[in-house]
Amino acid sequence: MTRLAVPKTYKLYIGGKFPRSESGRVYEVASASGSFLANAAQASRKDARDAVAAARAAVGGWSGTTAYNRGQVLYRIAELLEGRRAQFVSEVADAEGVTTAAATAQVDTAIDRWVWYAGWADKYAQVAGNGNPVAGPYFNISVPEPTGVVAVIAPQDSSLLGFVSALAPALVAGNTVVIVASQSMPLPAISLSEVLATSDVPGGVVNILTGSPAEIAPWLASHADVNAIDLVGAGDLDWVALQIDAAETLKRVLAPENGPDAAAPALSRITAFTETKTVWHTKGLL
Amino acid sequence: MTLTQIVQGERSLAVIGGEATDANLRRYLHGIPGVDAVGLEQRAAGLGTRSIKTTSKAWALDRIIGLIDQTTLEGADTPGKVRSLVAKAVTPDPADPTCPSTAAVCVYGDMVPFAVEALGSARGDPEKGGVAVAAVATAFPSGRASLAVKLADTADAVAAGADEIDMVIDRGAFLAGRYGMVYDEIVAVKEACRRTDGTSAHLKVILETGELNTYDNVRRASWLGILAGGDFIKTSTGKVAPAATLPVTLLMLEVVRDWRRMTGERVGVKPAGGIRSSKDAIKYLVTVAETVGEEWLTPSLFRFGASSLTNDVLLQRQKLATGHYSGPDYVTID
């Protein structure tokens, strides 16, 4: 007797919950060979709005944790991802149509990337910050601080690695993220949200939308409560218009990148979403 | 007493069928049919599903602002906080001169002089674009004080210049069935609202529905408040959860509607506490329009008691005006 297949419903990830799109829309996700994989939620502008609200609410808690603790939380994501390697290998292989070996390599690289960025959490401030020279009996110190809510358009031609490469650095400094997954290959990203939900990442720190970046990105770029936007995967969109929208509210903007090296690991991806605060402090008065 | 007050009082006694004693009031209030709780909640939920878009939404948002009693009722209130509250009430959105001002500011009695001074020429009848000063009185929020203290509290606020008085009923007496006492207290406070020139501050009667436990009690308290001469019936102090809910407000509106049919008089309703989003506020507008009619959507007959609602409405207004989502950085921190 054949067993009835139990297809999975892929939903959004907003504020630590898995809602359907407010619009009720879904779209078909096909494998690289064209066969039906699943229906994914097609997020609307209102889902983006809700995601930004959830991200804003989470800024205080996440940016308020110690750098060491944030590093531990990000490392925990890598640990859980390692435990579900087989699932992600098969999903990546289905989505991208690559061999199991290539999919395994991609998942391993994604896990390693979490570890790499986790390590930076309590170290980037030492590198990006500075004790400034002064001519008096006090200290003058510049420290990087998280900018707040970061919107990310994930790379569109990579299902997992590109997504992780864009997401992880934005979290390191204590920002919260609203990220739009690859439109054609969103399933590994949503599965990653299950990892995030069961790891120690507080709800609202990462919010994942699936659907059309062309539809959602303008709302995120123009949203006055978004502090920065990473357009790494927006190369096929009208990204100049998005930059102009973002400039209206003085957002930090990262430009699109193409090819397999898009969002390559770099300290600059962490510092791009920080603001430098400079303070002075007295030396001992004795 | 003025002639109208005497007429009103006599009509109430005629409705009750005798003097306002515990026994007569009990006979009348307990003779009112019970509330169908499931039907009430379903009706309220149904009214909450209306989709209000574009021009209707723009109208609703402006109207909501014009119906708000901008409120601060904290132990930590200072004259400075009241002044900034007044500034917010007069000019809710400084970046947009087309934004209407709120109906009133609502403060504790001792803050009334500061509110009056800060309002200056902006103070006036909200029906004519002014901003009124409302004061809570009668040992707000608990109402646990002697009648003499409550009356002094009220007279003090009126003398300081309050245009409207928000009084709390004695819930303990109400729940103990001493309706006559609650009735007499409202009548006495109404009398204390009179100014020396013969005019009278508007009286809002707070039922504190969160402490009345049942819908039947809310309906009885609404009748009691109206019979005793309240110009407004108000859901809650905002200090008790649950505060205003849509079913409770719908129930009070139905009483107001029935009173109108019975006597031709129009009594106002003020939901207060817990209304924080424009979406919720629009549901209340729909409920008012569907229950008592659109003519009630005016500051003399309907108010929102709210402190954080204004900001959400302003964010929605900005979204409609600019076409993109706004954020809390673009409104004041209250």
Automatic annotation (TrEMBL), chain A:
Pfam family, one: Aldedh
InterPro entries: Ald_DH/histidinol_DH, Ald_DH_N, Aldehyde_DH_dom
Superkingdom per UniProt: Bacteria
Aldehyde dehydrogenase domain boundaries: 22-255
Species of the source: Orlajensenia flava
Keywords, alphabetical: Oxidoreductase
The organism's taxonomic lineage, starting at the top: Bacteria, Bacillati, Actinomycetota, Actinomycetes, Micrococcales
Protein name in the entry: Aldehyde dehydrogenase
SUPFAM superfamilies: ALDH-like
PANTHER family: ALDEHYDE DEHYDROGENASE-RELATED
Automatic annotation (TrEMBL), chain B:
Any one of the GO BP annotations: deoxyribonucleotide catabolic process
Reactions it catalyzes: 2-deoxy-D-ribose 5-phosphate = D-glyceraldehyde 3-phosphate + acetaldehyde
InterPro entries recorded: Aldolase_TIM, DeoC, DeoC/FbaB/LacD_aldolase
GO CC terms in record: cytoplasm
Source organism, top-level taxon: Bacteria
Pfam families in the record: DeoC
Keyword Lyase: yes
Coiled-coil region(s): none
Uppermost EC category: lyase
GO terms for MF: deoxyribose-phosphate aldolase activity
Keywords in alphabetical order: Lyase, Schiff base
Pathway field: Carbohydrate degradation; 2-deoxy-D-ribose 1-phosphate degradation; D-glyceraldehyde 3-phosphate and acetaldehyde from 2-deoxy-alpha-D-ribose 1-phosphate: step 2/2
EC number: 4.1.2.4
NCBIfam families: deoC (TIGR00126)
Similarity field: Belongs to the DeoC/FbaB aldolase family. DeoC type 2 subfamily.
PANTHER family, per database record: DEOXYRIBOSE-PHOSPHATE ALDOLASE
Protein name as annotated: Deoxyribose-phosphate aldolase
Organism classification: Bacteria, Bacillati, Actinomycetota, Actinomycetes, Micrococcales
